[in-house]
Amino acid sequence: MATTQVLLSGRRLGSTHREVELLARLPPELRLIGGLAVMCRVGTPHRTTVDLDAVARDLPRYHDAVARLAVTSVSGGQYHFADHLDLDVIDVAPMSSQDLADHLSVAGPLSDLELNIVAHTWAHDAATPVDIVAIDEHDGQRLAVAPARLVASAAGLVAMKATTVSLRASSKPEKRASDLYDLGRLLVAGHVPPGDLHLMPDVLRDAVIERLQGWFATDAGRDRTYRDVRRFDEPRLDLDDAADAVEALTKA
Predict the structure, then answer these.
(1) What 3-state class would DSSP assign to 128?
(2) Contact 135, 143 (CB under 8 A)
(3) Which of 35, 33, 44, 32 lies closest to 6, judged by CA?
(4) Which residues contact 204 (CB under 8 A, 6 or more apart)?
């Protein structure tokens, strides 16, 4: 599988620099998701991120290697490192996303949580290798390199975030807003190949398309999405472009 390279600009010893340094030391089997993965897929500038998020299959196999690098670790895949960096690792199902979807569907329509579990499993298996390079925003000097790290694809990130928004508690509207902003940026700048949606289990693809249309294509949905994401103004998300991207994906 070919490896691509991305350059992420930031301040020396800033969050991006330190995250890439840490990522280079983590077990290569971990698949990067979350804010840093979105930055890799849309390019910078993008909203800043201060934590690392990953998925793994059979996390206990890698726990000791990660825990040795961490200052503290707790059950559930949560690790705290020096320099105020945190890592959350989600353990995905021990089967393919299609087998998982088939298994869960026996009991009836999938719940939002079950769709989210299928999405994380699909994103894990669809991740691709990326050479992640942090460079100084002032002079372009290389600050840190994490070679051949497995990063969720743009489609994988869209699937995870599209199935996460409905799980956000009303007490955390900022999380819903950031997920919708990331979704919009992935649609506009992430260049999601339409064919990637057809690689998902049907039940996941149908749910993702329905939600993207509701948030970015319908008038009422776009109005609410605008109110949610307008706090993120650098770079500004053009909802017309997002709607066009949704239309192109759903017609393919």
Answers:
(1) strand
(2) yes
(3) 44
(4) 97, 101, 115, 118, 119, 122, 159, 163
Residue 38's alpha-carbon distances to 28, 53, 82, 175, in angstroms, are 18, 11, 23, 15
Number of domains into which the chain is organized: 1
Report the distance separating Cα 90 and Cα 55, nearest Å: 5
Report the alpha-carbon distance of residue 37 to residue 54 in Å, rounded. Answer: 9
CA quadruple 64, 68, 72, 74: dihedral, nearest 10: 0
| Start-to-end CA span in the chain (Å) | 25
pLDDT tens-digit series, residues 115-126:
999 999 999 999
Distance CA 45, CA 150 (A): 21
pLDDT in tens, 1-60: 778 999 998 899 888 999 999 999 999 999 999 989 999 999 865 556 668 999 999 999
Show the domain range for 210. Answer: 4-251
Please work out, in degrees rounded to the nearest 5, the angle formed at the alpha carbon of residue 188 by the alpha carbons of 186 and 192. 60
Q: From CA 38, how far away is CA 58, in angstroms rounded?
A: 24
Q: Cα separation of 130 and 117, whole Å?
A: 24
Distance CA 78, CA 205 (A): 29
pTM for this predicted structure: 0.93
How many other CB atoms are there within 10 angstroms of residue 94's CB atom? 10
- Residue 92: enclosing H or E segment and its boundaries? strand 85-92
Residue 75 DSSP symbol: T
